[in-house]
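Q: For a teaching session next week I want to show students how multiple molecules come together into a single three-dimensional assembly. I've collected the sequence lines for a complex. Could you give me the predicted C-alpha cells for the whole thing so I can convert them for display?
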Amino acid sequence: MAHLLEIKDLHASVGDTPILKGIDLIINTGEIHAIMGPNGSGKSTMSYVLAGRDGYEVTGGDILMNGKSLLEMEADERARAGMFLAFQYPVELPGVGGMSFLRAAVNARRIDAGEKEVDQLEFVKMVRAKAKHLNINDDMLKRAVNVGFSGGEKKRYEILQMALLEPTLSVLDETDSGLDVDALKVVSEGVNLLRDPQRSMLVITHYQRLLNHIVPDYVHILANGKIRRSGGKELALEVEESGYAGINDAA
Amino acid sequence: MPASMMQLSLDGVTGLTGVRAGAQRRWQNTGWPDQRAEQWRFTRLSGLQKMDLRFAESAAITAENQEFSAAMPDNAAFLSFSNGVFDQASLDNLPKGVKASLLDGDEATLLALSKLVPQSHPISDLSLAAMTSGIHLEISGAVEIPIVLAFTGDDNSLSAHPVVSININDGASVVITEWHRSNVGLSAPLMAIEVGKKARLDYAKVQQDSAASTHLAATGLKLGDGSIFDGFQISVGGKLARLETHITLAGENADCTLSAIYLGRSSQHHDITTNMNHLKGHCLSNQVIRGVLDDKARGVFQGKVHVAPDAQKTDGQQMSRVLLLSRKAEADAKPELEIYADDVLCAHGATIGELDETQLFYLASRGIDGQTARAMLISAFLDDAIDSIKNDELSAMLRPITTAWMTAVDLNNAGEL
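A: Of course. Below is the structure for the complete assembly, covering every listed component.
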C-alpha cells in the first residue's frame, strides 16, 4: 500500500532562492511527525509547499499523497483531498462571517466526496460541540473570520477548523508561536483529541516545549533545506539541551 | 465645443416657454462640457457626438414589474417610464399619501425644480428642455407602500429625458426606488427632491441599463430641518454611466447618507459624482463608496463636501474603496473638502487595491475553490456599503444584483488579462 505522504528529494524555491534542497520524508497513516529546525531552515516553506501556495515553486522531486502526486493540484484541491494547514499566522477576513466560512469549507469537501451538504441547523450544533472543547464561545463564532481575535483565539480557531474538516494529514505550522503556557495547553489538548489511527500530523516547531504536549512518534531536524537527522521523541530533548549548533555537520 | 457639433441638438425643439426655454438657451450656449471642464476630466462624452439620436416621443413598451428584482415587495407601486415617456396608466394605482401630476405646463413646479437640480449642469439644462415626460409627486404622511420609478426602453436610437420632481412634506416618510433597465442611446434622467422638516426618504437608485446605453443622471436634493435621507446608488449597466447627485443640507440636524456601489467589466465606465453642501449646522453626512472593476473597466468617484461658515458641528464622512480585479482596470478618486466653519468633524479617504493573495490562499487551504473564494471576498468588500442601508426591503432588493454580477463574471480569470 502507498504511504499516506511520501516526499521524494523535494527541491523548492521562493523567487530565485532555493530553500528546500532535497527533502525525503515518509509519513504513514496514524503517525505524528515533528519537524524541528532553526530559523531560516525552511520549515514554513515546507508547510506552504505542501499546502500548494502560489509563489513556492517546486524545482525538483515529488510529493505523493496516497501514491498520487500533489504537484499538479491547486491548494483547494489538496485541501479537499484531505490536507490541512494550520497557519502560523492565521489570516483575518474582514466582512466574511465565521459561520458561513466554516460551512463553505465543510461543504466544499462534502460536495467533492459526493456527500450531502450539511444543513444550517445541524451545522450549528456540530460547530458548537467541537468549539466547546476549545473554549470557543458563540460570540467568537459570530465574528468575522479571525477579526479581533487574540493570538490564542486565532490558534484555537485553526484547531476548530481542523476538527470540522477531519483531514487525513494535518500540517501544524509553528502552532505554539505566540502562545502562553495556558493557551498552549488548550491548543495541544484540542490537537490530542484529534489523534486517531486514521489521521496523521506533521508538527512544525522551533521549540521542544510543544512536543511535551503533542508527543510525536518521530522527530526530524531540518537545517539549511535538508533533513539532517531523524529519530524518536528523545531527539527533541537532545536539541533542547545542545541546541541546533552542529546539526549541519552531522548530516 | 459648440453644441452645433453634436448630433443631439435642441435646435429643432420649438415652442418652449418660461423655465424650459431658459434651459434650452443655456444649453445651446454651452452644450456638452468640453475637455477642459474640471468636473468632466475623468468622464469624456466625446462618444455621444458620434451617436445619431432623436428625442423619444411616445411610450412603446410597458415595464413588467417582476423583471426588476426577485426580492421586490409584492405591494410595490410602479410608476413606469418607457423610452423616457411616462405611462399614465400607472397613475391608477397610487398608494395612499401620494399625489401625482404632470409637469408639462406646470410653470411653478418647473421653476422650483430648476432651482433644486445641479446648477450649470449639461443634463439639468438638456433634460429640462428636452423633457420627454415629467411628473411631480407630492408625498404626505407615512406612505406604507414602497414606490418604484421604473425606467425601461427598447430603442437605442432614442434619447430619453424623463424628469421627476418629488416633494416630501414635513413629517412625511416614503421609500422610493429609481430603477433603470433601459436599452436606449442616452438615458438622462433629471430628478429634484425636497425632503421637508422631520421627513424621511429611503431611496435607492439602480442603474442596470443595457450594455449599449449611455446613462447620465443629474439629481438634486434639498434636506430640511431634522430630515433623514438614506440614499444608495448601484451602477452596473451601461457602457458609460455617470450618476451625479447634489445635496443641499438646508436645515439643521439633517441626517444624510449617500452610499454607492459600482461594478464594471469589459470596457464599461462608471462615474459617481457627489456634491454635499452643508449650509446649516449639526448635520451628518456619510458616504460609503465601493467599486469593483474587472477587464478594462474604469471607475470614477468625485466627491465634494462643502461646509458653509454657518454649518458648525457638521459631521461629514466620505470613504471610497475600489477593488481592481484586472491589471487593465483603472480607477480614479477625487475627494474634495471645502470647509469654511471652524468646529466640524470631516474626514475623507480613498483606497484602490486588489484582492489579497494571502486571504485567497487561506480560503483555498480550507478547500474553497477560487471562484467561490473571490466571490466571498468581493461580497465582504461590498457589504460595507450595502450594510449602510437602513431599510431592510431595499437592501434585500439590492443584494441579488451584486450576487448576479459575481456569478456572471469569470472571477477565475480575474487578474490575468
